[in-house]
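User: Show me a protein chain along with its predicted structure.
Assistant: Here is one chain, sequence first, then structure tokens.
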Amino acid sequence: MTATGIRFAYRTSADISAPISQELATLQAQQMAENALSMALHYLRNSAINIPGATRKTVQALSALHQVQVLMLNGAAFAQSITRGVKP
């Protein structure tokens, strides 16, 4: 009688902590985007309208949103590699 085994994905503590740090970085980037947009609106609503400042903050927000998108795509690729049992 031969033993049949079930193949489990190999996971270390580093593999488990990586998604947590990935999520933290994504949340931080999202918060940066929200803060930058909030400041841009503040510059536009102020009695002395600051167009250059609002533009600068809007560009910062777009950059942070791009960072969120990249982090989310990397996180999805990492999660797929873990479920397949492939070490990244």
